[in-house]
Amino acid sequence: MTIPPLSQQIIEDACEWAIMHGVAFRQSDNTARHCPFSIAPMTMEREVYEHLRRVTPLITKLISNVSEDHDFLQSSLSDMAQADPFFGRLMALHQQAHGCADERLNPARQPLLLMRADFMDDRQHGAKVIEFNGIAAGMAPFGQRATEFHSFMQNQWPETYKNWLEDQSATPAENQGLTQLAYGIATTARQVRADFNEQGKPVFLMVVQKNEDNVYDQHLLEVELQKQGVRTVRRTFEQLSSQFSTGDNQRLLLQDIGAVDVVYLRAGYQYSDYWAPELNESICCHTLSQTRLFIEQHHVAVNATFSQQLATSKTMQMLLTMMPASEYARWGLTLEEAELVKSVLADMKPITSESIEWFNTQANKQEWVLKNQGEGGGHCVFGDDISEQLSQLKPEEYDAWALMQRLYPHERDVPTIAVRDTQQTLVTDLVSEVGLFTAYYQGKPVTELDGYAGYLIRSKPASENEGGIHSGKGILDSLVLID
């Protein structure tokens, strides 16, 4: 039987629900456009999901402890830092912050790790990590909203929902991405305020990009924090460069606001976030990156610290993948925990003249993806294009890149309808990426779910390489489980 396309009534209902619930991007003329979404959720075996639930907090514990091992970060990432100018700058800032032999002079910042670990459930190898996001690890609000949206569809348009569901016995996976992330941040903010024996509302500062279009996801988090008794403030690095000062006991003070308890960076993962043309600097981006350093020199909870950004880099992912599980003991993991983490790490190889030779002569090129250190979409090279890219690299650039096992997730058994810009498209080869959120403060879980904080599902046609909601062909999705 062929299922007719959705009626205009259903499409309008769905798009208006999305806009009304903040699931949108801001346009340049200040109007809003709804996020692209799927009309029904993806299916995953409960066992696979439970495995990811169990392993992701362990990954966060590992990354959290690695990120506080400053000598290890400096020694293990030095080659990559020379090959990648942006990470070179981060390493220099990290060294500036932590390079003092006198422990008492090291930065006073308190690490709050808000992380999203992204997985794909490979047909052959099972669920594997694509990457760790430790800075600007956003979209937990959109993740929770997508789950709520599919619940709305199930209640309002049950026939439509059923028509596009893969398995009628599937049940929704609970998703408190927004509320639990806010809970972790609010708990941390109150803790910092208590460190100073201060009363009143804790203050949360979000560092944002200028003219950001992904503002609604950010505002949803702020509204939830306000509900949980936290005052929220938004600033760009440029604004902050002249608005900070230091109070007693390394308290971070913000002009016209007062003491700040948590700083959350939704900017800072690319050079352009630190570039202020009117400053006319001899060293690009010096002033604004020093603003970030200034934050870390204060007793304030920070996500992401320089350390966390380095510890979630592709090169660190590769080093941890290549390491025997027993070595994780130095960062507080038992062998059993380490083996669990290793079970979800996909093969990675460094770029050397030997690995290039191997790739060009022996490898199955479709089984690998070439990645640089970039965050977000557009930083991956696939298949035959890899040899071309490798041939253009200079040897001094090798350490900025890595080969990673390419993942081929299950395609959805049932076609789905993707809705983008109020238009529907039938997608017959949809695959999904699963991002699990965690929140840890000073190495300890700070959510009501032992550090876990919900999930984000992004789906895309298998034929498309770029799956970002924001920058690629991805659509927002949610998760149902089958036994």
TrEMBL record:
<keyword id="KW-0317">Glutathione biosynthesis</keyword>
<comment type="similarity">
    <text>Belongs to the eukaryotic GSH synthase family.</text>
</comment>
<feature type="domain" description="Glutathione synthase substrate-binding">
    <location>
        <begin position="203"/>
        <end position="311"/>
    </location>
</feature>
<dbReference type="InterPro" id="IPR037013">
    <property type="entry name" value="GSH-S_sub-bd_sf"/>
</dbReference>
<dbReference type="Pfam" id="PF03199">
    <property type="entry name" value="GSH_synthase"/>
</dbReference>
<dbReference type="InterPro" id="IPR014042">
    <property type="entry name" value="Glutathione_synthase_a-hlx"/>
</dbReference>
<comment type="pathway">
    <text>Sulfur metabolism; glutathione biosynthesis; glutathione from L-cysteine and L-glutamate: step 2/2.</text>
</comment>
<dbReference type="Pfam" id="PF03917">
    <property type="entry name" value="GSH_synth_ATP"/>
</dbReference>
<keyword id="KW-0479">Metal-binding</keyword>
<dbReference type="InterPro" id="IPR014709">
    <property type="entry name" value="Glutathione_synthase_C_euk"/>
</dbReference>
<dbReference type="InterPro" id="IPR004887">
    <property type="entry name" value="GSH_synth_subst-bd"/>
</dbReference>
<keyword id="KW-0067">ATP-binding</keyword>
<keyword id="KW-0547">Nucleotide-binding</keyword>
<dbReference type="InterPro" id="IPR005615">
    <property type="entry name" value="Glutathione_synthase"/>
</dbReference>
<dbReference type="InterPro" id="IPR016185">
    <property type="entry name" value="PreATP-grasp_dom_sf"/>
</dbReference>
<protein>
    <recommendedName>
        <fullName>glutathione synthase</fullName>
        <ecNumber>6.3.2.3</ecNumber>
    </recommendedName>
</protein>
<keyword id="KW-0460">Magnesium</keyword>
<keyword id="KW-0436">Ligase</keyword>
<dbReference type="InterPro" id="IPR014049">
    <property type="entry name" value="Glutathione_synthase_N_euk"/>
</dbReference>
